[in-house]
Every structure is written in C-alpha cells, then in structure tokens.
C-alpha cells in the first residue's frame, strides 16, 4: 500500500532514471492528456510531496500523479519487458534514451504549470519526509480539532503529509492509544509527530516496511493486517473495525489491551476476529 515512504522511494527512482535527460517518448493515456506530447523536453526533477509525485519538465510544466491504493511507477531498460500489469492499466509512459518509466493504475494524472503546483498540493500539511517538515506546525494542525479521533487526525493529509492506513494503525499502537481516542486527550501529543517522523525515515529506504524491532517477515508490523492474531506485546487478539467519515472508512487494527478502549471507545459491534496462528 503506497504511503509516504513508498512515494519517496518512487520519486527517487524516477529522478535517477529521468532527470537531466530529454524525453524521447511521452504517452499520457488519460482523455484530458491524450493529445499532449512532452517529447523533446528535459526532465528537471521528480519530487515527492506527501503521497503526491511531481515530475517537473522544462518549459514550466509539472506532471502530477498520485498512487492512491494500488498505483505504481515502474522503470525499465530499453529492451526490458514491461511487467507492471496488463497494457490497459498503463496511464503514462515517459522514456529517455536509456530508461522508460511506466505508470500503472494511476488514479490521478494531470499536467500543471509548475507555478500552479499549489492547486494540487497546497492544501497538504508539513511533509514528514520533505524539506518543509515542521513538527510544531504539524502538531498545531493535529490539535486544532481536539475532539477528532486520533486515527482520523493522523490520516488527514492536511495535518501532516505522508501517513497512510498502515502507519496510522502502527502509530496508534506505539502511542498506546485507541485510534478512537479524541486527540486532545492524548497525554503527550508531540510524541505522535516525533514517532511518525521516525517511522517514515526508518522505512524510506526499505522495500519491506518494518515498524517492530524484529526483522522476521511475520513480525514486521505490530497490529496492521493481524486481525485475530495475538498481540506481540500482551497476547490479546488484535481487533479490527472501520474508521473514518462515510464513504472514506478505512480498516483499522488495534490491541484492546495495549490500547485501552476506556480512553477512546470503538464503535459498537467491532469484535476480535477469530484467532489463528501467527
């Protein structure tokens, strides 16, 4: 699942493959850009902004993309077979003389004037992996609505940019707080921004995301994806439920013992899934 760490690595790979080179091929397969041709323009840089990717090309243009749940950019050598999915899932092809970047299943793809990038990403809060990271501003935004559930506040990209559902669940566990706890009742809210920064920095160079001290493949996350399995810390079965505003609910994982619900109660009906082996 692409989150800030994944997008950071994707931007780095795209930058290494394309930056400083003229495009020999440009194929943007969305209706609005079907006749757009960037061939001949040099790619200046590719930068991440939270979960957004900004590919800047000469002439003051930026190709803005977002991976959301299952989008991906793949890099190939000239004679290499493309393996990112069937052809009908390709939304963008950007090629130089020695590399081809192919964007699969991109739900957002638009061409902007570079001066107008703020129209696409100006609403975002401080970027956990960006040069604009400002923990004080991120904390101010998180606490602006003190009654908002912790999990929802962490996911809101207007507060701080880069956290997705995996990191949300893991952060709540590490904070020993229910995802439904009103964020204003978090004893040390500054730990939320400190831990968020630490987790994303630790994972930006890893292919396999790890939030625990263990390197074992079956112990990489504390709670995410582990419904019904015993908590690594206390042995209580991990619970799961949906959190978020209508139509934007996300599956949330938590340990009811390590993250006591008296500090923030989950909606009725969310029970522990049947327990099975780790």
Would you give an account of this structure?
By secondary structure, this protein is an alpha+beta fold. The chain has two domains: about 120 residues, N-terminal domain of MutM-like DNA repair proteins, CATH 3.20.190; about 120 residues, Helicase, Ruva Protein, domain 3, CATH 1.10.8. It has a four-stranded antiparallel β-sheet, covered by helices on one side. Strands 2-3-4-8 form a four-stranded antiparallel β-sheet, covered by helices on one side. The protein has a two-stranded antiparallel sheet with strand order 9-10. Strand 3 and strand 4 form a beta hairpin. Helix 3 crosses helix 6 and helix 5 crosses helix 6. It is globular and about 60 Å long. The C terminus is likely disordered. InterPro entries: DNA_glyclase_Znf_dom_DNA_BS, FPG_cat, FPG_N, H2TH_FPG, Nei2_N, Ribosomal_uS13-like_H2TH, Znf_DNA_glyclase/AP_lyase. Belongs to the FPG family.
Q: List the secondary-structure elements in sequence, H or E.
A: HEEEEEEEEHHHHHEE
Summed over residues and divided by their number, the pLDDT gives a mean of 93
- Helix tally equals 6
- In the predicted model, the low-confidence regions spanning at least 5 consecutive residues are 269-278
What form results from the Cα inertia axes?
globular
Strand content: 15-25%
**Architecture (CATH level 2) name of the largest domain:** Orthogonal Bundle
Task: Write down the Rg.
Answer: 20 Å
Gap from first CA to last CA: 21 Å
Task: Classify the fold: give the CATH topology of the largest domain.
Answer: Helicase, Ruva Protein, domain 3
Oligomer: single chain
Which strands sit side by side, in order, in the main sheet? 1-6-7-5
Helical/strand content category: alpha+beta
Number of domains: 2
């Amino acid at each position: 699942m692409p989150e800030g760490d994944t997008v950071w690595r994707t931007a780095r790979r795209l930058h290494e493959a394309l930056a400083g080179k003229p495009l020999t091929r440009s194929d943007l397969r969305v209706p609005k850009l079907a006749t757009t041709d960037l061939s001949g323009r040099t790619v200046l840089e590719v930068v991440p902004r939270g979960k957004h990717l900004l590919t800047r090309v000469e002439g003051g243009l930026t190709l803005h993309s977002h991976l959301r749940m299952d989008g991906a950019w793949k890099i190939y050598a000239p004679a290499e077979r493309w393996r990112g999915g069937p052809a009908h899932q390709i939304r963008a092809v950007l090629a130089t003389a020695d590399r081809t970047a192919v964007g699969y299943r991109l739900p957002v793809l638009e061409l902007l004037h570079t001066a107008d990038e703020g129209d696409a990403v100006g609403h975002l809060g401080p970027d956990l992996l960006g040069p604009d990271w400002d923990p004080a501003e991120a904390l101010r935004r998180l606490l602006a609505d003190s009654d908002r559930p912790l999990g929802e506040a962490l996911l809101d990209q207007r507060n701080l940019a880069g956290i997705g559902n995996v990191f949300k669940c893991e952060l709540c566990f590490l904070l020993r707080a229910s995802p439904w706890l009103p964020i204003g009742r978090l004893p040390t809210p500054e730990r939320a921004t400190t831990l968020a920064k630490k987790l994303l920095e630790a994972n930006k160079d890893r292919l396999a995301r790890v939030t625990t001290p263990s390197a074992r493949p079956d112990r990489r996350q504390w709670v995410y994806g582990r419904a019904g399995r015993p908590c690594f810390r206390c042995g209580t079965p991990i619970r799961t439920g949906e959190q978020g505003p209508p139509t934007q609910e996300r599956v949330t994982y938590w340990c009811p013992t390590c993250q006591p619900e008296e500090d923030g109660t989950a909606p009725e009906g969310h029970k522990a899934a049947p327990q099975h082996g780790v």
